[in-house]
């Protein structure tokens, strides 16, 4: 398995890139998130291929997949399921909602009311659901991909900062490059291509890959760098809200998964840098008006990669 | 009297200037030889007295051991100066920033103290004269964050005055100190009025004060409808079921907030500061009510939004209204 | 604060041996009260109680009969204040006052004893006090009480040790000034050793003590053991029972007056001849002014008095060990012409008593042709009539003690022989006198010195012979020659009485002798070089080190030493600003970046090594290969440590060389 891991990952990436054209970086980050066993938040304008990416990920991993379009009238019960009164038996029976799936796509998460959002986020955090006093565990792996429109759009309920923290990685796909757009215009539609995708991974292979992530080595030198980054975000003058310990853990885990994606047994500063914006962007809030992503990029430019003592 | 005060002020200004030159302000300062001042303390004078007495005793009784004790204490007094000095030397102070506050409240400066790897530091005292002081040790921790508060007067930027770092460790026979000018500034928001002027914040063409109803919500009861497959047991109108034998489901609504605008020009009262104080109160209220709001100031508009970051942005705009940025 | 109390107890403890006993319960009560206050069980005493306590203390002081002003009184007063102060320690200031008094008391105790043990104990007290001083100044919240006490004590030890070199320099160089005024040292200082009178039985008591009297280092050849007659006092006056110096008792001041007037030393009365014996002696604290030298001491260094009987005597009773340097010429002829005053003294006898002895003397003198023959006859008599040398002679009563010894008991110690011999001489009209002092001593090979103990106390005689002056005669040798050849232990071996009373004496354990002698040698060094370091010693030392004693030179030298110690402190304490050392690979990498920056490829702080290498290689295609390899090795060391980092670091150096 270990020797096959790089090949498996390469094959998976190849399949994904076939569908999502010209977004190698984002595709890798999405897969990183999956390997690091975290949840993914896609933030983009409608029509950028968020749903396609989610579909493709589920498909290539051979996982069970459900999708729910979030609207303002979505109830928590619509997500997690409800006890239903069966008139024949005169008793209630729990009908699991769509959240009981291995890959759950929450489309336009910020259109739903805070109550529905909280229900999902709680399920994500605890990986189980409690209905009427009974606890129902969610399947494993459980991978939530949520998409959301940029906050400035009207009619939305932006996620509070504390809940954004539940997502390991936040990505935006952005407009396609001209080449990819040309292909798209020529009729190379991602949704159509989905059908031609091969399933490379399955549940057990994915679990095996996930178990490799913590084994990727991190030296003291690397952790020094990570700590320098974290310390910088915590300077009150730079950030209104610095990186929490959970955020720091997420950064390290993602960097490991990224290194694994690069078929490396150890983490390099490049790996940390590659995931830093996606991991930290939605967890820190700047003093000035700049966006988290921009701020994260600035921080990367300012913190020295090299240095540290020995012993 | 005035001329004497003038001279004193001039001297003070000159001293400050000299100190500033010697201790330039920076985000992070490492205390080194040039920056540390050291003098024996009053306690040391007492010990000098004891040493002198012992020396006399030694002379009078021609007793070598009494001499030795006297000289030993003298050596201790001298050595202690090195120790005290070392306890401060190499200490790095980094300004982490100043927490924003409201005018009249205490501004809180956060400073990170870090020690050289192979040294430990004890009983370091950070102080603003007459304002606040705090004592810390750096033993197991390499770096420690310390918060100090300082009173503020008006809104705008708060620039922390020079900070005194001192230590008497280990024996209290010498005092080493240094002044640190930290190059940070913090925001001081306007002082919010107790109670906001009511008409402000009327919605633009809104219908109810609560905003738009959203059907299928969960907050407020709005009516009853026929039972549909999948409705939860909590929503079933059991009283009606008992009466009619038919299942009905209770429905609820949520309210989607519409955008509220805080507009400078709509305020009826005169005076810049008064208006800012009112707007400040309103921002705080809306934030607490979790509503979506925007801010319009002459020359600056902040689009509606909510959340901590949005509040911070609005308050910053209020704090810096008319303040020339540096 | 409980540690402050502990430190106080440590400081006060040694005083209990020297000061009035009633102090003990007072201190215990105060300590107990303090403990209760600390435990919260009692409150700080009110003003009334404080006044009462002070009144009690002062009252006790007055009642205990201490003389004012005296050292004892001062020490007792200080101790009381020290103890009472602990009752009202509420603030840091009070605690500091207590600690400073504590320092003072540590020094004060050295006026009572300066032994090595006391000095070591003083060091412990210093450490404890300094530790408490550190503890009083600040509480370190991170430490538990036990931890901080251990930490503070360790710090105190380090600091005090680091102070030692400077302390020694000051000790050596600080000017020694003559006493400004004099305070009577002790109210009732105990006196040990030789006294200025000799009754039968007095010297035996000393013979049973193994306390040290003095130590001697010889500068040249050591005289033979039987030559070592350490003269202390000359006893001229006999009242029928007891030998004394003069016909009445002189106190120290009267004695001083006498030694400066009619009984003064007159060097012209001796004819110096023979070989000199140069030596230095350190006398233990005896509470008496007597010093012991080989007679006659012709040259003497030190502030001493000398007398017509060739004695050497200190100005004051010895309250501290005393160093004397002397050169003696034992073969010198003394008083070839005997002044009338001395002759009268040397012939005086009580008008009555000891009739049989007087008759014996006259008979023997008649039979003898000359004085010398007479002396020999008397000595032979001791030998022939089987007189016995013993540490436990029978008591002789108050009257006719000479008769009792010579005719009845015939058993005695040196005092008996010396006393009766002089009696017999004077009865025959020959000037004679008793000399008391010490004879012999124990050679310490480890320390190369002679240790003279109390049991070496001895009494012998001097007889004046026309044309020869004073001649030393030791009648004890007639009965027990081994006393002079081998010492008291050998002389009374058969009797088994040597140190019979001190069961635990280390002397009884021969296997311990080596250790005992070593320890004694250390103590002697202590006495000689530390306690004995005074103005003369200072001058001699500086002279030998610097050649001459110009102020400038001494100041320069001392200044140099000061500077050296300051520098040592700086280095030892790591005060020279030491930056956090960066690992060698990082240093090399920075140099690598600098080298590339000179060629136009600048690395921003946020550039990871890999990314930068890529950039730099594009910018500098000629160096691309080296840059890539360097980066690879560096990344390897930093992020995927190789088995041997040193090899990799060397490789980095080689590669760096290629770039430069």
UniProtKB/TrEMBL annotation, chain A:
Annotated ChlI/MoxR AAA lid domain residues: 233-293
Parts of the chain that traverse the membrane: none
Domain of life: Bacteria
Domain annotation ATPase AAA-3: ranges: 39-169
Pfam family, one: AAA_lid_2
InterPro entries assigned: ATPase_AAA-3, CbbQ/NirQ/NorQ/GpvN, ChlI/MoxR_AAA_lid, P-loop_NTPase
Protein name, as recorded: MoxR family ATPase
UniProtKB/TrEMBL annotation, chain B:
Organism classification: Bacteria, Pseudomonadati, Pseudomonadota, Gammaproteobacteria, Thiotrichales
Superkingdom of this protein's organism: Bacteria
Transmembrane segments: 36-59, 65-83
Name of the protein: DUF58 domain-containing protein
Keyword line: Membrane, Transmembrane, Transmembrane helix
């Amino acid at each position: 398995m270990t020797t096959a891991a790089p090949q498996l990952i390469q094959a998976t990436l190849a399949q994904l890139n076939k569908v999502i054209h010209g977004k190698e970086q984002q595709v890798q980050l999405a897969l990183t998130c999956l390997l690091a066993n975290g949840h993914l938040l896609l933030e983009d304008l409608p029509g950028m291929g968020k749903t396609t990416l989610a579909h493709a990920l589920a498909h290539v991993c051979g996982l069970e997949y459900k999708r729910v379009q979030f609207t303002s009238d979505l109830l928590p019960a619509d997500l997690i399921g409800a006890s239903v009164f069966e008139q024949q038996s005169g008793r209630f029976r729990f009908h699991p909602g769509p959240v009981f799936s291995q890959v759950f796509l929450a489309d336009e998460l910020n259109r739903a009311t805070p109550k529905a959002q909280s229900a999902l986020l709680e399920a994500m955090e605890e990986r189980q659901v409690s209905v009427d006093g009974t606890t129902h565990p969610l399947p494993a792996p459980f991978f939530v991909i949520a998409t959301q429109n940029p906050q400035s759009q009207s009619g939305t309920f932006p996620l509070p900062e504390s809940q954004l923290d539940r997502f390991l990685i936040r990505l935006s796909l952005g407009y396609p490059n001209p080449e990819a757009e040309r292909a798209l215009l020529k009729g190379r539609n991602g949704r159509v291509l989905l059908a031609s995708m091969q399933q490379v991974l399955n549940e057990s292979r994915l679990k095996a890959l996930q178990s490799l992530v913590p084994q990727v080595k991190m030296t003291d030198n690397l952790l020094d760098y990570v700590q320098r980054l974290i310390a910088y975000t915590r300077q009150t003058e730079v950030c209104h809200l610095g990186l929490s310990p959970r955020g720091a853990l997420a950064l390290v885990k993602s960097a490991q998964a990224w290194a694994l994606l690069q078929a490396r047994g150890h983490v390099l500063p490049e790996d940390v840098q590659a995931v830093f914006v996606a991991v930290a962007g939605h967890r820190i809030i700047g003093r000035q008006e700049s966006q988290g992503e921009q701020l994260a990029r600035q921080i990367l430019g300012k913190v020295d990669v090299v240095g540290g003592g020995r012993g | 009297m005035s001329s004497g005060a003038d001279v004193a002020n001039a001297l003070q200004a000159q001293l400050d200037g000299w100190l500033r030159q010697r201790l330039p302000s920076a985000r992070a300062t490492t205390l080194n030889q040039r920056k540390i001042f050291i003098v024996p303390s009053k306690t040391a004078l007492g010990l000098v007295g004891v040493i002198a007495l012992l020396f006399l005793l030694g002379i009078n009784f021609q007793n070598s051991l009494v001499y030795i004790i006297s000289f030993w204490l003298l050596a201790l007094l001298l050595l202690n100066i090195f120790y005290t000095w070392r306890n401060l030397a190499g200490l790095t102070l980094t300004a982490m920033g100043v927490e924003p506050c409201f005018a009249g409240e205490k501004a809180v400066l956060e400073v990170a103290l870090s020690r050289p790897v192979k040294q430990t530091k004890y009983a370091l005292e950070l102080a603003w004269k007459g304002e606040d002081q705090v004592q810390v040790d750096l033993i197991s921790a390499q770096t420690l964050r310390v918060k100090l508060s300082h009173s503020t007067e008006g809104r705008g930027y708060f620039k922390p005055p020079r900070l005194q770092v001192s230590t008497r460790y280990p024996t209290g026979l010498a005092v080493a100190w240094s002044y640190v000018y930290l190059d940070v500034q913090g925001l001081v928001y306007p002082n919010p009025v107790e109670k906001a002027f009511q008409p402000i914040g009327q919605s633009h063409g809104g219908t109810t004060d609560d905003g738009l109803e959203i059907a299928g919500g969960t907050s407020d009861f709005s009516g009853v409808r026929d039972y549909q497959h999948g409705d939860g047991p909590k929503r079933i109108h059991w009283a009606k079921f008992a009466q009619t034998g038919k299942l009905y489901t209770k429905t609820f609504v949520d309210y989607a907030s519409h955008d509220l605008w805080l507009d400078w020009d709509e305020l009826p009262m005169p005076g810049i500061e008064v208006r800012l104080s009112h707007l400040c109160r309103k921002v705080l209220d809306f934030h607490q009510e979790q509503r979506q709001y925007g801010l319009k100031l002459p020359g600056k508009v902040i689009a509606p939004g909510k959340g901590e970051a949005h509040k911070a942005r609005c308050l910053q705009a209020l704090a810096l209204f008319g303040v020339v940025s540096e | 604060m409980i540690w402050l109390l502990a430190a106080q107890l440590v400081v006060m403890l040694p005083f209990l041996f020297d000061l009035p006993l009633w102090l003990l319960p007072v201190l215990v009560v105060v300590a107990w009260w303090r403990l209760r206050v600390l435990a919260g069980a009692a409150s700080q005493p009110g003003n009334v109680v404080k006044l009462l306590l002070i009144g009690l203390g002062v009252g006790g002081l007055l009642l205990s009969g201490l003389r004012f002003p005296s050292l004892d009184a001062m020490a007792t007063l200080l101790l009381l204040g020290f103890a009472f102060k602990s009752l009202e320690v509420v603030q840091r200031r009070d605690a500091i006052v207590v600690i400073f008094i504590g320092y003072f008391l540590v020094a004060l105790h050295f006026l009572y004893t300066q032994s090595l043990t006391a000095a070591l104990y003083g060091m412990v007290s210093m450490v404890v006090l300094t530790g408490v001083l550190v503890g009083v100044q600040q509480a370190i919240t991170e430490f538990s009480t036990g931890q901080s006490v251990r930490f503070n004590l360790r710090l105190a030890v380090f600091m005090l040790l680091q102070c030692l070199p400077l302390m020694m320099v000051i000790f050596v160089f600080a000017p020694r000034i003559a006493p400004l005024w004099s305070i009577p040292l002790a109210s009732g200082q105990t006196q040990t050793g030789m006294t200025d009178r000799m009754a039968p039985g007095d010297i035996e008591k000393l013979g049973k003590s193994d306390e040290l009297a003095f130590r001697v280092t010889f500068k040249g050849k050591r005289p033979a053991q039987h030559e070592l007659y350490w003269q202390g006092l000359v006893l001229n006056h006999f009242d029928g029972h007891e030998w004394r110096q003069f016909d009445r008792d002189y106190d120290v001041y009267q004695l001083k007056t006498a030694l400066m007037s009619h009984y003064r030393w007159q060097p012209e009365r001796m004819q110096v001849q023979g070989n000199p014996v140069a030596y230095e002696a350190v006398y233990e604290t005896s509470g008496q002014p007597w010093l012991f030298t080989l007679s006659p001491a012709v040259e003497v260094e030190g502030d001493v008095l000398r007398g017509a009987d060739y004695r050497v005597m200190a100005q004051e009773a010895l309250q501290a060990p005393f160093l004397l340097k002397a050169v003696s010429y034992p073969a010198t002829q003394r008083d070839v012409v005997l002044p009338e005053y001395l002759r009268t003294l040397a012939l005086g006898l009580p008008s009555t008593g000891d009739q049989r002895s007087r008759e014996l003397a006259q008979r023997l003198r008649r039979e003898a042709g000359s004085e010398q023959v007479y002396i020999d006859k008397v000595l032979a008599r001791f030998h022939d009539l089987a007189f016995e040398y013993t540490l436990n002679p029978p008591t002789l009563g108050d009257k006719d003690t000479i008769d009792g010894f010579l005719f009845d008991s015939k058993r005695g110690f040196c005092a008996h022989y010396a006393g009766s011999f002089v009696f017999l001489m004077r009865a025959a009209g020959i000037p004679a006198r008793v000399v008391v002092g010490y004879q012999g001593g124990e050679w310490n090979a480890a320390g190369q010195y002679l240790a003279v103990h109390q049991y070496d106390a001895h009494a012998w005689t001097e007889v004046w012979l026309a044309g020869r002056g004073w001649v030393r005669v030791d009648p004890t040798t007639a009965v027990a020659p081994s006393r002079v050849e081998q010492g008291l232990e050998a002389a009374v071996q058969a009797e088994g009485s040597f140190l019979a009373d001190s069961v635990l004496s280390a002397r009884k354990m021969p296997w311990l002798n080596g250790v005992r002698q070593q320890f004694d040698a250390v103590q002697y060094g202590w006495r000689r070089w530390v306690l004995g370091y005074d103005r003369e010693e200072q001058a001699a030392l500086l002279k030998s080190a610097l050649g001459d004693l110009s102020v400038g030179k001494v100041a320069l030298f001392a200044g140099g030493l000061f500077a050296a110690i300051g520098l040592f402190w700086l280095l030892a304490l790591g005060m020279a600003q030491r930056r956090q050392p960066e690992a060698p690979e990082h240093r090399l990498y920075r140099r690598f970046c600098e080298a590339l920056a000179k060629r136009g490829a600048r690395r921003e702080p946020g550039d990871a090594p890999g990314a930068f290498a890529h950039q730099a290689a594009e910018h500098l295609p000629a160096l691309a290969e080296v840059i890539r390899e360097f980066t690879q090795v560096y990344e390897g060391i930093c992020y995927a440590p190789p088995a041997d980092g040193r090899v990799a670091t060397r490789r980095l150096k080689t590669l760096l060389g290629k770039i430069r």
